[in-house]
Amino acid sequence: MTSAKFITFEGIDGAGKSTHIAFVAELLRQRGDKVVTTREPGGTPLGETLRELVLHQPMHLETETLLMFASRREHLAQVIEPALARGDTVISDRFTDATFAYQGGGRKLALEKLETLEQWVHPQRQPDLTLLFDVPLEVARARLDASRTLDKFEQEKATFFADTRAEYLRRAAQFPERFRIIDSTRTISEIQASLTELITAL
Ligand SMILES: Nc1ncnc2c1ncn2[C@@H]1O[C@H](COP(=O)(O)OP(=O)(O)OP(=O)(O)O)[C@@H](O)[C@H]1O
Ligand SMILES: Cc1cn([C@H]2C[C@H](O)[C@@H](COP(=O)(O)O)O2)c(=O)[nH]c1=O
């Protein structure tokens, strides 16, 4: 793989994606890439302030969606585009696929509205590679329950996560050139072995 790749990690809450970001970053660094790791919502001081709001305050669905894209616009301007322009690889814990999955699939905002916002905020930018960590809801829920206090999204009911997961899988089928589905029911070391194979083959 040449440098300056934009890699995103996606999946329902508790799928295990964040667990593997440092591992993949280290794999890439070992082969000489400069790597920036970041996240959404967040990734900038303003984005982190917006993150606190969207993860903890009740709000209208369109407000929530617009704040996700506001955080993303700042993230692209301050972090993602400058890093890619320097030739660094960017690994982001979530990006626009999450808005389609959560606000579109989970909360039922019309996908056409999301496509309009996507065209406005990043008409030319898509991830080069999206790793979708996929698990049944019960597995994700058990992992979350064992690990931490739940935020606004993590407290959603099972049907919300079923619809969110279904939208992720629909997008993976729609964009097979950039999506790779990772079976995240396996052990961490089994998943790391797959990730090593995948990154080495890029
Ligand atoms: N393959 C795995 N097997 C068992 N436990 C795992 C596995 N992957 C992650 N975990 C554990 O599950 C919990 C959630 O993992 P992690 O934070 O990586 O999920 P996530 O998908 O990033 O969730 P969120 O999006 O809510 O941040 C953590 O306690 C983590 O140690
Ligand atoms: C980018 C983005 C995120 N979300 C949700 C998904 C998660 O529940 C939280 C925060 O993410 P984390 O992986 O747990 O750190 O925000 C969303 O609903 N829409 C989005 O666009």
Automatic annotation (TrEMBL):
One of its GO terms (cellular component) is cytosol. GO terms for molecular function: ATP binding; dTMP kinase activity. It is an enzyme of class 2 (transferase). Gene3D superfamilies: P-loop containing nucleotide triphosphate hydrolases. Residues 9-193 form the Thymidylate kinase-like domain. Keywords: ATP-binding, Kinase, Nucleotide biosynthesis, Nucleotide-binding, Transferase. Its EC number is 2.7.4.9. It catalyses: dTMP + ATP = dTDP + ADP. InterPro entries: P-loop_NTPase, Thymidylate_kin-like_dom, Thymidylate_kinase. GO terms for biological process: dTDP biosynthetic process; dTTP biosynthetic process; dUDP biosynthetic process. NCBIfam families: DTMP_kinase. Belongs to the thymidylate kinase family. Phosphorylation of dTMP to form dTDP in both de novo and salvage pathways of dTTP synthesis. This is Thymidylate kinase.
